[in-house]
Design a protein that fits this description.
Elements lengths: L13 H4 L2 H12 L13 H11 L9 E8 L9 E7 L3 E5 L8 E6 H9 L8 E4 L1 H18 L6 H9 L1
Parallel strand pairs: 1-4
Antiparallel strand pairs: 1-2, 2-3, 4-5
Helix pairs in contact: 2-3, 3-4
Length: 166
């Protein structure tokens, strides 16, 4: 999807992209907070996608999944739905895209609802799924299983060193 004409678009340098593992560890650390609550909170489509990239395990998904993800924010009457192309082969990649020809499935949901499916065990039936439900189920399982691993407090400081090295 091309950027609107009246905005400035920024792209990360390789140097800035090197911070990605740091942000992933911080996101996983925040997920494990014993005082974190989600009551009254919500996520925008882009925030939900960023959380997926942060929380997804750093491993291949086999067989690969290619799906279309259409998210909207039900809290805002002014925001249109955002379409993303989700590819998970050697790692998870998500980009804005209108291209859906390679997708085996499409998920359409409120962005906060999709996050709750991924991280809180809300049933997949809370979203509209067309196409290969099996591919969507595998993607959800891979993210939610790994996110669950980080939702428990880790008392061993050495475990964080392992996260930084992965």
């Amino acid at each position: 999807m091309p950027a609107p004409a009246a905005v400035t678009v920024y792209e990360l340098t390789d140097w800035a992209r090197a911070l990605e593992p740091v942000f992933a560890v911080l996101g996983r650390w925040a997920q494990a907070s014993p005082t974190r609550t989600v009551e009254g909170c919500g996520l925008t489509p882009d925030a939900t996608v960023q959380s997926m990239v942060t929380m997804a395990p750093r491993r291949p998904l086999s067989p690969p999944v290619v799906m279309s993800l259409v998210l909207y924010d039900r809290r805002s009457a002014h925001d249109a739905a955002r379409r993303y192309l989700v590819r998970w082969d050697d790692r998870l990649r998500i980009q804005w895209s209108e291209e859906t020809t390679s997708a085996t499935a499409e998920v359409r949901a409120d962005s906060t609802t999709w996050a709750r499916i991924l991280y809180e065990g809300l049933p997949l039936e809370a979203a509209e799924v067309t196409g290969s439900r099996g591919d969507v189920t595998r993607l959800v399982a891979a993210i939610s299983e790994d996110a669950d691993r980080f939702s428990r407090p880790v008392l061993d400081p050495g475990a964080y060193r392992i996260l930084l090295e992965s």
